[in-house]
């Protein structure tokens, strides 16, 4: 029972990281889509305690996979991938969802933007592209976070919740350390932290499709608890950055 | 409520809030776990500033001695927190067991090579 399974061949500079939890209905298509583009990337799936056939499908396709002993949550699964990327000397990392909402073509654009603009974080924003369908509640939540980010950092981030992101080595090294990354749903709070630490964040338009199957992580009333939780996270981020700045000024 | 008592409870509430904030800053307490402590200390501070509220609610429920309501509330909140802790501890135990087994099997595999 090894932790990392599958995959052969020479290493690329870029790792595409796909955290999954019970995505048997979509993971096959997602992997095919990425493979079909024949990009110079390595793909790593993080199986976050799936109980369906997700892992079997990934192994069948010969894609590398890390098995987590139990469900850690989206942030925990991503952080596992960051630790792996750090140990394997990857230069870039692309976060990609296994539910079919992300378009593999955007990987190319993210990679190009990261190199060209020397960015630390490249966000694929659904709001910068022509069409997008977002639920009413979700719109309120996203607009709320946009406002908070603008007020606290002066930056306009159109899609703070986007899971389609490119990260530089500097960024994922930071994220990989204990206590530096949210365990459940990294969102506006981690963006505010990175912006406050002066990391370069760039957004590009991305084609984000709607879920065809399964249940969203933030259905219904959960959105409100989610908002409260992120607000508290942001409050802590502000406190920590202010204290750090205050300490520096005094000392 | 006596003024001295009012001030005393207010100071307690503020000190407590300060402690929670301090722990949060030092990353010794996670955001999730701090929410309930914030709510608790918030309730205490509000009640100490507006003890009339205590009187009103106490009368409504039928409690003769308003501070008893404060005790009742505190006990209920603490009960809730302790209960949540039991749930968290159960989960942690399960996870530790899982990890222990995982590591044991890995080490055995390693030695077998």
What's the structural blueprint in terms of helices and strands?
The complex is a heterodimer of chains A (251) and B (113).
Chain A (H helix, E strand, L loop, with lengths): L3 E2 L8 E7 L6 H10 L4 E7 L6 H7 L3 E4 L6 H14 L4 E4 L9 H13 L3 E5 L10 H18 L11 E4 H8 L11 H9 L4 E5 L16 H29 L1
Parallel strand pairs in A: 2-3, 2-5, 3-4, 6-8
Antiparallel strand pairs in A: 1-4, 5-7, 6-7
Chain B lengths: L2 H23 L5 H19 L1 H11 L4 H47 L1
Helix pairs in contact in B: 1-2, 2-3, 2-4, 3-4
Keywords for this entry:
heterodimer; A: 251 residues; alpha/beta; 8-stranded mixed sheet; 8 helices; 8 strands; 43% helix; B: 113 residues; mainly alpha; 4 helices
Summarize the structure.
The complex is a heterodimer of chains A (251) and B (113). With 251 residues, chain A is of the alpha/beta class. Chain A has 8 helices and 8 strands; from the N terminus they run ββαβαβαβαβαβααβα.
Walkthrough of the structure:
The complex is a heterodimer of chains A (251) and B (113). Chain A is of the alpha/beta class. Chain A has 8 helices and 8 strands, in the order ββαβαβαβαβαβααβα. Chain A has helices at 27-36, 54-60, 74-87, 105-117, 136-153, 169-176, 188-196, 222-250; strands at residues 4-5, 14-20, 41-47, 64-67, 92-95, 121-125, 165-168, 201-205. An 8-stranded mixed β-sheet of chain A has the order 1-4-3-2-5-7-6-8, sandwiched between helices. In chain A, helix 2 links the parallel strand 3 (41-47) and strand 4 (64-67). The longest helix of chain A is centred in the C-terminal third of the chain and has 29 residues, at 222-250. Chain A is globular. Helix content of chain B is 88%, strand content 0%. Chain B is elongated, with a radius of gyration of 22 Å. The mean pLDDT of chain B is 86. The A-B interface holds A 1-3, 69-70, 179, 183, 228-229, 232-233, 236, 239-240, 243 and B 21, 24-25, 27, 30-32, 34-35, 94-95, 98-99, 102, 105-106, 109.
